Amino acid sequence: MGIYKRGKKWYVDVSDGTGRRVRRSIGNSRHYAQVVQEDLNVKIVKGQFLGIFDADSTSFSEYAKDWLERKKVTVTQSTYRDYRSTMEVYALPHFGNTPLCNVAYRDVEEFVEKLSKLSAKRKNNIMVPVKCLFNDAKRRGDIRENPCEMIRRFKEERPQIDPLSFPEMKLFLEHVDPHYRAYFATAFLTGMRPNELLALKWFNVDFDMRCITIREGRVQGIEGPPKTMSSPTGTSTCSTLSTRSCAAQGGSRDAKYVFMGKKAAVWT
Fold first, then answer.
1. Who contacts 18 (Cβ-Cβ below 8 Å, separation ≥6)?
2. Percentage of residues in the chain with pLDDT exceeding 70?
3. What pTM does this model have?
């Protein structure tokens, strides 16, 4: 504990004497960080720390900025973009410069009420990073109580699935651009997600065993592990027709990816 530098910013890390650790971002000056550390230590010794500190706490917006920076290296880029978008569009306009330690359950309730017009699934997705942020703050000792602990997930209605029948699939494949026929046939017969199909490589297609190993997906040009895995390797068993569909894909099997654009361009 003490002062330390992360990136271009200096941070103060002290204990209030009860085991509660307090970390705060100070700025670009080491001198200011030392001054703040000394001031906080004096307040702790006098028994005045908690009241004074709470009145001058880091705001939600400042904590959110630091939290997002830390999340950038622990989650996928697509998840990070979702978290950042949620903060910028929903959370920051509501909580803004409110001291993080002053955010109460009723404040979170008001935030949730503003989301009333959104679907249950969307509201749950929005609450994920908000809850994670407050969990992080409590775990790090920056707040005593998590105002999101009593916020329950919204009940999501299961979507009504109306898959294409085999005659409908056949009709679709007869009329689709021949270059994309293998792509759609494989999608129909395996249930693979679009991002998994875009990242599918030839060495993950086993024609003898008639299966495809799903190892990664591609989102906005970035490849990473698939969203879910049915087994340690994420294997999707295929019919003979499906594996032949892969083989029928235009282009050479010397190419890295199974499904490519018409000009051998990698789909993003």
1. none
2. 80
3. 0.62
Q: Alpha-carbon torsion 98, 102, 106, 108, what sign?
A: positive
Per-residue pLDDT tens digits for 179-230 = 889 889 888 888 888 989 989 988 888 888 888 888 888 887 888 877 665 5
CB atoms within 10 A of CB 150: 9
The angle that helices 105-113 and 120-139 make with each other, rounded to 10 degrees, is 160
Higher pLDDT, 260 or 268: 260
| Cβ neighbours, 10 Å, residue 105 | 14
Question: Would the CA dihedral through 127, 77, 219, 202 be positive or negative?
Answer: negative
Distance CA 183, CA 205 (A): 13
Query: Chain-centre distance of CA 197, in angstroms?
Result: 21
